[in-house]
Design a protein that fits this description.
Distance between the termini: 29 Å
Shape: elongated
Low-confidence stretches: none
Helix content: under 10%
Radius of gyration: 13 Å
Length: about 70
């Protein structure tokens, strides 16, 4: 699956959205404020038995909402 972090400022904290299915290549995030600039980063994870393995975080991408 994939784990998505998004925030107005990563230094102050972030929200997490998990996408469990690799077939679902997108995520819908509700309750974002218009005219604000959000930052996003993503990483993949895989659960094997009781251990979860994570990849490195992607580069942070910013997007201003219309």
């Amino acid at each position: 699956g994939y784990e998505l972090h998004y925030s107005l400022d990563f230094k102050k904290g972030y929200n997490t959205k998990r996408i469990a299915s690799p077939k679902q290549a997108y995520a819908t995030i509700n309750k974002l404020t218009r005219k604000k600039k959000y930052s996003f980063r993503v990483r993949s994870y895989k659960k094997v038995k009781n251990i979860t393995y994570y990849s490195a975080w992607s580069a942070v991408k910013s997007k201003k909402l219309n």
